[in-house]
Fold this protein.
Amino acid sequence: MNIYETTRLRDEYLLFHYGSPDQIYSWPGGPREALGFPARIVERFSTGEVERALDLGCAVGRSAFELSRAAAEVVAIDYSQGFIDAAKAMQSAGRGEVSRLEEGHCRESLVVESPPGTLPERITFEQGDAMSLRPGLGSFDRVLAANLLCRLSEPGRLLGRLPKLVRSGGELILTTPCTWLEEFTPEAHWPSGSTLAWLQSELSAHFELLEEHDEPFLIRETARKFQWTVALLTKWRRS
């Protein structure tokens, strides 16, 4: 079974995307700077209103909500139908119930809410494959692909499509923890060197690299077990 279609992962991602800091992490100290990742990465786009934004690998939708603050239209696509259904439920109700695993068989039911000040009516959520996007998708002023590349079987197919997806002068943000695993990506499709060097080689003909830095993120699995990960963020401008 696809792990991204499981109820457990859906609930973990709903908490990751929409949970308050105290709902995710109640311990003193620790990596609190890693909270709020789906909102922080959208803040790396330049300020100002734009016409269209695309969120590829949107998961349960938080970054799409954040993009709606400044984009008149947001298209948000994920391969997981379960994630898309959860995102649509958050869009419709503005809130959702999460079964949070504490330990063993112990769970706690809690409610997460969509971020205030966003414009969910601007968002279209749809199931799709980032390596084979539907015809007629069009082009965008802002494109975000968060933690997606190293989960694709052929990430080069997406990179090859990006010049047509991003409008001239538009911005692209890619994040990846660079966790290349054969269960997702056959080794033949891994970068031969560093991920950053590979991205520069693949994109530099059409994009200017504006910035690159690290962005930590935190996913809660149980009350005492967390995934603390650091993603490489690169921001590009389409020539």
